[in-house]
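Example record for the data management plan.
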Amino acid sequence: MRILVVGGGGREHALCWAISASPLCTKLYCAPGNAGIAQVAECIDVGAEDIPGQVALAQRLRIDFVVIAPDAPLVAGMADAFAAAGIKAWGPSKAAARLEGSKSFTKELCRQNNIPTAASETFTDPARAETYIRQQGAPIVVKADGLAAGKGVIIAETIEQAIEAVRDMLSGNKFGAAGSSVVIEEFMQGEEASFFALSDGEHVLPLAGAQDHKRAFDGDKGPNTGGMGAYSPAPVFDAAMQKRTMDEIVLPTIRAMASAGTPFRGVLYVGVMIDAKGPRLVEFNCRFGDPECQVLMMRLKSDLVPALLASADGSLKHLDLRWSNDVALTVIMATRGYPDSYPKGSEIRGLEAASKVEGVQIFHAGTKADGNRILANGGRVLNVSALAPTIEEARARAYRAVDLIDWPEGFCRRDIAWRAVARRS
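Corresponding structural encoding:
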């Protein structure tokens, strides 16, 4: 098959890395790709959100199968555009992608189907939102209703912080149209984890759990980011918790979407908060997580392509996947200043030496090539990933590779998987 992957980040590099190993893949393209993806796929400079451009590219290249990886084009209807052009594509329709594109839509679906989640209300009027916040007290969570690149969530420690967050969002200054309405919800305490399941609209295949680190700095300090590291499996997400998440959250959601005439075909990312009562939904995403995808692809022993095809074709019922028992861990190296403003263009050295560390695979998230040089071209730039029999060994290997990378303009957290390590010790 001639396969096109849409996107150009670390998640897409991990998917391309896995797809390129499939005997079903005769030619792999990625648009727009990055300097790391170029090692396993032919990269073509068409924007990930350019729907007409991507469709035209697939037609020109005679693509057999398109893998749409990022959230924004899915929410905008890219899968529908490929279907209209008669090109097989993996990823949910625009209507199904509302599970990620509108938090208020998901909250209403949870209410109607008794899916456990935080109590919440949705607002477009700042004064009404402020009244609600004062009634509820702090800490409290303020979320932009639409897509905000993983940064549209404010955990307000005080009432004043929450009110300021609401004003910033509803004014359009913070997240543009994504913040034209806000969801204000109770602050859930517990341990957060991520779970992934493939769906073909009717059948569901559970994948694996992971745990990521949203805050920018060690000790879970600093602003929320798109993710500064992840590991899989997550000890908090054992077989019993997976079954409860499937039974109480995933299956009711897939059934509700099908009965509404908007079947969900793709991967459902389920962010859950786990406490003594069990799992409660934090959020849905309509695509693989980033950086969770990287650790899942490191652990996946089966061919990824048949699973994606079965999800697109409605034939998941008889499919199964094999996973490594080893632990995968990834450390995000980001440009100093991220998640706020940051410079581009700094040179990264030492990648070859770092990639030779046993069990290490480096996925590029925001890089570009300049001759023989690799330059930083984004906020999150590298995903230094490792596979090993234990969490301690995986972490040691990943940080050994990090320390071989010469990039003064970059930073990373040094405590990835601290919960898992503390639990074992």
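Summary line stored alongside the record: The chain has four domains: 2-91, 125-180, 191-318, 327-424.
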